[in-house]
Amino acid sequence: MTGSEDRSRADETRARLLDAAVVAFAERGFHGSTTRDITSIAGLSTAAIYVHHRSKEELLYQVSRTGHINTLARFQAALAASDDPVEQLVTVMREFAIDHARGHTGARVINYELAALSPEHQHEIKEIRRVIDTEMRQLIERGVAAGVFDNPNPRMAAVALLSLGIDLARWYRDEGPLSPEEIGDYYVDLALRIVGARR
Fold first, then answer.
1. pTM for the full model?
2. Among the three residues 27, 53, 79, which one is the final residue of a domain in this structure?
3. How far is Cα 12 from Cα 68, in angstroms, rounded to an integer?
4. How does DSSP assign 152-187, residue by residue?
């Protein structure tokens, strides 16, 4: 077996463990899940977790870090796609809602198990969240300054908009009546109303 095949197999095993951790943490919570639960879901021996990850907490950290970095990248891509605050907000909210609906299980873990992270890992994740919060607030402030949004408190408007997406992961289910895209469209309408968009 070549070194690249070994790396490929190891990467696949790490990915299986991360996916299994998401399932376990979503079903039982971080503290209610054991490493045996995770490896059982992944179809691996209990020892496999320690070959690829230092601890159960590191699995949560990897899941959380990846999710937050992906969200930040989506925000930044939406902001870079247009100079118009209205178009930016439309794209951000649609992407944010659709992503949280499609990945609701992982998003639920990422947003509701933060307290289980080590202080060092919490600090890193909170810093990424701070950047996301700042990006949203500044977007609304730019819209107000440009006269296309009418909102007296961009900071609270940003909190409200981000909370919509985060909470979506708590209640959304695949078998529900609305598709992620339908929710995305509805959330865009809500976002435009919250910021007082002038159409």
1. 0.86
2. 53
3. 21
4. S-HHHHHHHHHHHHHHHHHH--TTSSS-HHHHHHHH
